[in-house]
Amino acid sequence: MPEISLPWPEPGDVPQPEPLQAEPDIDFATDFDDQVPALPDGKKIRVGSDMTLVFPDTGAEFELQDEFVDRFRELSTIAELSDDEDNLAQLSARARQDADLLDRLLRNYGYYDGYVLRSMGNGTNGDGSSSENPEVRFDIVSGTQYRFGAIDLGALPQAPDYEALRKSFEIWPGDPVLADKIVQENFDLDQALGETGYPFAAIGNPSLLIDHARQEGDLTLPVEPGGRYRFGSVVSGNPDFLSSKHLQRIARFDPGDIYKRSDEMDLRRAILATGLVSSVTISRRETRPPAPGQDGEVALDIELAKAPLRTIAGTIGYGSGEGVRIEGSWEHRNLFPPEGALRVRGIAGTKEQLAGVTFRRNNWRGRDKILTVDAYATNIDRDAYEAHTVSLLATYERVSTLLFQKPLTWSVGLEVIATDEREASVQGVNTPRATYFVAALPMRAMIDTSDSLLDPTRGFRLGGRISPEISSQGGSQSTYARTQIDATYYQPMGEKVVIAARTRVGSILGTGLGNIAPSRRFYAGGGGSVRGYGYQKIGPRDDVGDPNGGRSLVEFSLEARIRTGMFGGALSVVPFIDAGNVDRSTTPSFSDMRFGAGLGVRYNTGFGPIRLDVATPLNPRSGDNPIAVYIGLGQAF
User: Whole-prediction pTM value?
Assistant: First the structure.
């Protein structure tokens, strides 16, 4: 060819390549029995479609064998990458990686004399005939499980309470050598030191020396306890913002208590929970060293980074029962340090107007205890009544927070009200107005064993309210008590279904219905009551169908919260049925119960579920709409 200048080689001039040598760790066979004929039969465990583990019966017991297999299955390269189109070379490469993994796992469980035999060949079909798909088999000869020999814990024996600390590190000579156990007990010892007064304790990396002659492992863990201490003072880095006295008040420990790391971390979370700081740094400072027979003292220095303290908020919305509603507020959360907040709010709506100011002192005289003074003036125009009200309410309460849910919460208060009200008009004619002066002592308590504030799945809540009240109207005075009991119960039914039930019973005792201001009576109906009915639409009505409230209340709700696989499992569907009634007597009546049913969806945001419920009344009365829609944050109850 004209483009090629090199002469064409003669046949004898071309060197012959040497034949390739077979790779020693790749075995080709058609029968597994030809690969490991010297091993006895044992337990065969199928791991995937193209891999089998065999534990030969060699007389040595393999403890934790099931755990070993489960762990291998999770980490196996073959199990992760297996495909029907894999060829023998691909499977062989992955088998080498899995053989190394099995070697490491054997040592992790203390089998330092064990070994793994790997063989490959064609598999078998379901009828026993040979398959063309390649498979790999691992014969695992575990050998003897090694035991711990000597255990050296550094300077730990010098600690005053060495015996108790040593019991927290549950590895003893003669125990099986388990790598996971070393990690776990290292953590347990560190936790025990932190919870029994050792703020400066340090634990180094463990080392394990294997002696094959003894079939034992000697463990060395360098531990420096650093002396035992008690809490001293809590020192604020910004006392004008959050004082040292206030930080000590919200701590769960007193000066002189034995140091606990959990108490230190709890204080850090409590400071963040105030919402006044963006970050917290706690430094331990020795104020008195330990002495023979005497613990040392450690102070906690708190450095705070302020968070934004002012908030402007607003909402706008519309409801068939509430009309157009625009609400705005301004708040300074630390205007009166420490944790003294001032909030000014207002509502402008077609059926409600309000102007109010609120003072709130968080963590007042105790952790999660709140003093609130609220003064407001409001004008309300409902189907049931019209009211022009001025009120002053002071409460002192112990509350649950999203960080610290409490089994028992309570509140006591004092409320003074002046309200000018009249019931709904009759056939377009306004009823006479009446002025009520009310003094009330509202109190409540609740037991909460549920597992979440916004989205509970198990447990119960049981709460009670009582408000002794004195009402003066038109020269006459009435004394009565508004009482209410609420109970909810949550029961999981498998992994995806939660059954939730609620009941509420209320009664106003001591006077007739006409002596009670319409705004202080019981009403039912709406998203937080009996779904399917309008707001306050259940109960006694006047001649034109407007509600006018009652002295007793009863409500029931039952729903199934069913998680779906949609949106990563965040979406749930909730069929529900509600029932309730309001009666003019003091005894709840079941003779005229109203029932509503519907279907809801919940979208779990991580903070709490967004709720959308669509309901219909099952036994409506004249004027009840056929469909009602409710949207909110959190479950209905």
Answer: 0.74
